[in-house]
Amino acid sequence: MNLFRKYFCLFITLTLMFTMIACGTDNPNPNNDSGNGFDDLFVGDYGKPGLYEKDGTPHQQPTPNQVTGKTINVLDHGAVPNDENVDNTAAFKRAENSAEPGDEIYVPNGTYYFKSYAATAGSYYSHIYLHEGVNLRGESEENTILVSNFNPTLNEKNSTSVITTLSSNVVISNLTVTSLTSDNDLPDPNSSNTNSNVFTAPKYGITVDNDEPIEIVSNVLIKNVTIEKFIRMGVRIASSRDVVVDSCTFQKAVDLGGGGAGYGVTIQGRGNGINDTDSTLDPVFNVVKNSRFIGDYLRHGVIIQYYGHNNLIEGNYFENILLDSIDLHGEDEYSNEICNNTIINTRAGAGIGVGNSGATHDGSGPNNFFHDNIIDGGARGIDVILGSHKTILYKNTIKNLTKDNTIAITLSDAHHTRIIENTIENITGKNSIAIKITYSFYPLNPAAGIPDGYKIKGNTFKNIVNGVYVETRTDNFVFKDNTFTTFSGYDLKEDKDKFVLPSITDEVIEKHGTFVLPTDNNFITTEAKNVVQTQKNMKFKCSVSEPEYNRMIYAKFDLTTEITPVVKKVYLTFAAKSKDGKINMNFYGSTNYLDWTEDTITWNNSKLHNPIMARIMTEDGDYTAEHIRDFQIPIVGQEFKTYYLDITDYVMNLETKLFTLIICNNSIDEMYAEIYSSKQTAAGQTFGIILAQE
Question: Which end of the chain is more exposed for a tag (fewer CB within 10 A), N or C?
Answer without folding.
Answer: N
